[in-house]
């Protein structure tokens, strides 16, 4: 099952994707795609619905982030062996954890805004895990029982803020629009092997990242289990799990995003995203003029 949120920013409604790829409106049955909706019994009830009985959402309707009201947005750093190699970093002995601000989450095709003063905004295609039930001190063998589904995450990163300004990585990871999620939340039954999914990212049509979840250092089971020993994971929490090689800071010379760039990215079985990069001043001018910003 593929779950989706559609409509204007801040007023998204729930939906599901039918067999033809059309979005069907679930708002007559559930309020939203959030933590409470992700319980196993609720998902089981949704699976029993014949999509043809639901209203069809007009084609071209804006897609919001596939999970709403995210309480905790957790990220894993340097989690692909081939990405660690391109940055010259040692393979970590344990997962590297940091947080992305939940306020950075946007829809999969919304604009990405360059932060004020940014010179090193970078791209990262990532697999995100969405938690479906409360997890605490979970064994790795049972960890995927706590997962409601998976989605594409673009872990946009400002490298100067992240690496050159002292303190933690968080300050370069949570700027507004730095967390596009979606297009949809895919339940585990639709994925044959989450540890063997192809990944890609293009900038202006040029392939930058090509990878696979099979090169993860710590797999999804290990990540959920590990995190559950340091924090209480709640339904609707999002964990983005690291990126394969091809990021801008790993190039020689380094290359970063600029206003007008178009980024497209995707993961096998999980769909695709497309974002236009917008300068901070242009974005604030739109806001002041009351124009749409996504």
TrEMBL record:
The family note in this entry says:
Belongs to the FAH family.
Q: Where is the Fumarylacetoacetase-like C-terminal domain?
A: 73-278
Signal peptide region: none
Superkingdom, natural source = Bacteria
Q: What is this protein called?
A: Ureidoglycolate lyase
Does this UniProt record's set of keywords contain Electron transport?
Answer: no
What GO molecular function annotations does the UniProt record carry, in alphabetical order?
A: isomerase activity; lyase activity; metal ion binding
Q: Which UniProt keywords apply?
A: Lyase, Metal-binding
Q: Name one GO biological process term.
A: carboxylic acid metabolic process
Coiled coil (residue ranges): none
A Pfam short name: FAA_hydrolase
